[in-house]
Amino acid sequence: MKKLMLGNEAVARGFLEASCSVVSSYPGTPSTEITEYAAKYDEIYCEWAPNEKVACEVAFGASLGGARSACCMKHVGLNVAADPLFTMSYTGVNGGLVICVADDPGMHSSQNEQDSRHYAIASKIPMLEPSDSREAKEFAKIAFELSEQFDTPVLLRMCTRIAHSQCSVELCEPQAAVKKEYVKNPQKYIMAPANAIRRHPVVEERTAKLVSFAETTTLNRVEWAEDKKLGIITSGTCYDYVKEVMGDSVSVMKLGLVNPLPVDIIKDFASKVERVIVIEELDPVIENHCKALGIAVEGKSLLPICGEFSQKIIADALGIKGKEFAAGLDNIPVRPPVMCSGCPHRGLFYVLSKNKLTVLGDIGCYTLGSAAPLTAIDSVLCMGASVSGVHGFNKARGEESQNKTVCVIGDSTFMHSGMTGLANIAYNGTNSTVIIVDNSITGMTGHQQNPTTGYNIKGDPATKIDLEALCKALGINRVRVVDPYDLKATEAAVKEEIAVNEPSVIISRRPCALLKYVKAKPALKIDSEKCRSCKACMRIGCPAISMKDGKAVIDATQCVGCGVCEQLCAFGAIGGDM
Predict the structure, then answer these.
(1) Is 360 helix (H, G, I), strand (E, B) or coil?
(2) Per-residue pLDDT tens for 72-89?
């Protein structure tokens, strides 16, 4: 049986067919759907962990217990999971352990464009890279086999295009689940220095065996053309672009095992063609490997080191004429993302902007508070950095900043990595004000549950962490809750908390307007006779409000009746049933 599948769905199917038992992940585009699809299989226990480090450690624990396990994350999530990742390379595994990481060339939904192959190299963990959904499923299954064969975690590298594109996938029957026996082995699993010293040579021996494996595995293959003038070495989505541009006119070495890279077969391939070009997105990992082998190759001298490739980019780099390829996103009109109509964050950011506060932001849909016309955020670094950062900012600038500076962080992001920053504020003492924007969901990645929502990944009731109690337990005495739809109350709370001489937390609480259980109110209307064209209602940047013929108008199909704009109109021109 065949089925059209997204790459992420295919990975989840690979988990099922490989009899993976446990999947623990943190949502992050473009990796999120892997775990969401896996959760549809009753045979696999799935969960959302508070962060990627925890997810990776849960997967390790399940592997230690003898089960096949996996965790999934986006590329920046691998930074968070790096601590257990590097040491798991030393301990090895019991049951097979696969770590899926989805890179984001082009930064469609990310704050940087890092290349996760560097983590595979640095941690000395093998990495597979599929080029379509069919391979995504098969490589997921192979990854578990390699994990157990070589006693190592295995990285499966996805990217935005493979994760979110579709192709036909052959469905197979799942393997019978076999849980390995757990045998106590302190020398292997307790990474105290004395044991770790003995494990490092094991890792090096394993790497040598994997290099030998790379020379013969069908994961790496050569597709010979009659004309041997040009040979291309590539992997992942770039392989698809090359085939679409060049067809069978050039010889191609397709690498599916991208760490460790083979030596002899690359040398052999290069010796049989006149010119070798390496085509890979982001960093010149394969190119540098080839150059270290003494092979004359071209790569980044022809192709960019930044951004996502396309057929046109490759065709232009190779001088291919006579074929028309879409220019990717180049000619598409810019449509910047905005906070939705009725977004609970809008009222808060209006207040922060109005009071000209310095605002350290964080990762979430509320990052859009940085956009015009609100322009209410000064910095965004990484998950949780707003809380740690506001403490450092206030320590650096002293009292002059403490009454003018706050940070904002979402409820899910606070659980991910904001708690430790708040503990630091309480412990090391600054009069910092932390605003938790609690929209009762993990919004940016598509409405996943988190430890503050009261539901698990399947929507079943789960323990709900009390944010107020948690903040007080971390040492914050002043904790208050406001409704961001109430601008006066929100502004009063902000002014009072930044003025006090101790740390404080404001929880700006209102569920996301897009949640199924949130019922929209009737759309508001504008009385054109009363409207003075002052554009005060436009200052909140609501996509439902625009100007037409010099007067403000509200799009009834977008308005959810939140009432924030109504509070800004000094002439009573906005209301219901006009």
Answers:
(1) strand
(2) 999 999 999 999 999 999
